[in-house]
Amino acid sequence: MIKIKSVRTRVWTWTGPTVPPQGNFCTNASDALWMKGDAMASFRFHQWLTCEVEASDGTIGIGNAALAPALVKQAIDEWYAPLVIGEDPFDTAYLWEKMYRRTHAWGRKGVGMTAISAIDIAVWDLMGKLVGKPVFKLLGGRTKEKIPVYYSKLYAGPVEDMQREAEEAMNGGYLAFKSRFGYGPRDGMPGMRENLKRVEALREVIGYDNDLMLECYMGWNLDYAKRMLPKLVRYEPRWLEEPVIADDVNGYRELNAMNLVPISGGEHEYSVIGCADLIRSGAVSVMQYDTNRVGGITAAQKINAIAEAFQVPVIPHAGQAHNYHLTMANTNCPMSEYFPVFDVEVGNELFYYLFDGDPEAQDGFLQLDDDMPGLGISISDRYIDHFEISE
Predict the structure, then answer these.
(1) What are phi and psi of 256, to 5 degrees?
(2) For residue range 359-377, what is the model confidence (pLDDT) as tens digits?
(3) What pTM value is reported for the model?
């Protein structure tokens, strides 16, 4: 019988060129503080963790994590790896509960759940490779001919630059776009006008037959968001993402109940039960858990089922192969987020520099191979000279 033989973690620190920080680039939770320098600094992740779960026959499944990689590595090496070594990789439900319950006192949120996610994603990749099937086939199979994706960048900047980027994306065949706000409560009414100016400018380029999603990344508060929502209605956004900090569930609920603009969130929720509470209470109209944080593919499938029962669509946060497999296997996942290949800026871009095999969008869609086992990715050596690697 196949058993899990080892778990190997590595932290990859990017040392290559990066796009320098820009002012009013994207709102975030730090905007509520008086501070100097780059307010996005703590949200940039120029490190990534890989987690390789090896079976007794030598087959290796690959998982990953972008949240606090050095801490996640220590948690996996010292706590989680010993819990899965020697176990049957096909006992995914048992393995997940074992990791979750034996570290519950300290690991059920944040770093602990991110560690579980990395191992769980690797185990699903391993299972697919062992049976010669793509992960989406193990999750229920193909529900779409191909996956629609939305172009996820358009960080706040000069209006002309944002319009030029949107036009280039339109020429690339995209039919949906997500932009970031650059101004929040501390910027007052002038900041509101700057936000609205950019939304209007983007609509001028993409028109009203294409979807436009708007991202706050926790940079607003309830009062500011309530003032902004009526002003945004005319631009017909598909959703407003993370308008307040993740813990303000009542704020999400109140904003969503205004029924002006659909509210999305869940990226910074770390449990099945937490996501269920967001859905059940009407706090979100779109669920956007992060598979890397919420407990991996095992947990994500449970959330998908809960969301479908409430007819709340699920669009996992970020691109990446594991999210595409979940989207392909679920009718309640209508589309995927897609970060275009770009110079390293916030850190989402590192996935393309670290892995081979992640599907690339063509004309606003991407495809998964029915004959590619597992998640279809491998660790690349193309840019290895631009990484420092910690074992």
Answers:
(1) -65, -35
(2) 999 999 999 999 999 999 9
(3) 0.97
66: tokens are 């972008």
In contact, 120 and 63? CB cutoff 8 Å: yes
Instruction: Check residue 19 and report its DSSP letter.
Output: P
How far apart CA 231 and CA 149 sit, in angstroms, is 27
Burial class of residue 2 (count of CB atoms within 10 Å of its CB; 0-12, 13-18, 19+):
middle
Q: Which distant-in-sequence residues (6+ apart) come within 8 Å of 275 by Cβ?
A: 266, 269, 287, 289, 294, 303, 306, 307
C-alpha separations of 28 from 44, 185, 254, 286 in Å: 11, 11, 20, 20
Nearest to 170 by CA among 150, 200, 155, 156: 150
Q: What is the overall mean pLDDT for the chain?
A: 96
Active-site residues, by number, are: 317
Q: What are the backbone dihedrals phi and psi of residue 25, each rounded to the nearest 5 degrees, phi first?
A: -80, -45
Rounded distance between C-alpha atoms, residue 141 and residue 114, angstroms: 26
Whether 36 has a pLDDT exceeding 80, the answer reads no
Q: Which residue has the higher pLDDT, 78 or 23?
A: 78
Residue 281 near residue 299 (C-beta atoms within 8 A): no
* Amino acid, single-letter form, for residue 149: V
Query: What is the spatial distance between Cα 129 and Cα 138, in angstroms, rounded to a whole number?
Result: 11
Please, what's the b/e burial string for 152-189 (b: 16 or more CB within 10 A of its CB; e: otherwise)?
Answer: bbbbbbeeeebbebbeebbeeebbbbbbbbbbbbebee
- Asked if 211 and 238 count as a contact pair (C-beta separation under 8 A), the reply is yes
Confidence of residue 23 (pLDDT cuts 50, 70, 90): confident
Distance CA 275, CA 279 (A): 6
Q: What mean pLDDT do residues 104-127 have?
A: 97
Q: Which tokens go with 261? A: 């603009």
Query: Residue 316 in contact with residue 346, Cβ under 8 Å?
Result: no
**Residue 272 burial (C-beta neighbours within 10 Å; 0-12, 13-18, 19+):** buried
Nearest to 366 by CA among 332, 331, 317, 327: 327
